[in-house]
């Protein structure tokens, strides 16, 4: 580690920083387990906040609370909080982004309850934005690390069979101080390359795709009820096509044209989370050739 620290222009610490992994959780149980297994050896506390409604105001079960036994391997490190959401009514104009922001603010109190203190390393990212253990060990063992760093994650869609690009940057790592606030937006121009994986819409069951499509902040993209048809979803995820029938989100026509059409397949299982590879049979749906899903 001494060599790695110096290669980045940093120096080796006499002892590692404590690490707090803070996430707002919806229903991604499989990715949560892969994430926590990846990071478990370096994380001090797993801080997880879930709500009893979606960002769009739909009542939902507390998926983590009802499946907590699955995470017994990390039980001593888990700090779990419940956010009381608001149920939308017919004609309601509740802004899903406002509710999402409220949950992120609530995370600040939960982190303090978990015992975070100045100088600790805080990971701020969504469940499906998974930093690699290698990345976190580097940042916890080195002095001279910038106080805030974005993490460049390799972006995948539906599974690790469909790599999109390296455009995922919202995940951040902070050296905690009293002014640190939990967020999911641009905070610095500094970014650490090749720092992990972002697997969007990487679900085991078709019902989970439908849940996310109607639950998250961009649910307005479901413009037609047939978008939620299981057979349509199955066909699109095996082709690597867009669930919402939209153009790619880019800032130039050149980038939009480059990304139009299906995502090219990859048959590679190199440089993926270790727990995923070690349990390939269990997580076949996330690996090349495993695009077919059950309804659940």
From TrEMBL:
Gene Ontology terms, MF aspect: beta-1,4-mannosylglycoprotein 4-beta-N-acetylglucosaminyltransferase activity
Entry GO CC: membrane
Keywords annotated in UniProt: Glycosyltransferase, Transferase
Example GO biological process: N-acetylglucosamine metabolic process
Pfam families (alphabetical): Glyco_transf_17
Alphabetical list of PANTHER family matching this protein: BETA-1,4-MANNOSYL-GLYCOPROTEIN BETA-1,4-N-ACETYLGLUCOSAMINYL-TRANSFERASE, BETA-1,4-N-ACETYLGLUCOSAMINYLTRANSFERASE FAMILY PROTEIN
Protein name: Beta-1,4-N-acetylglucosaminyltransferase family protein
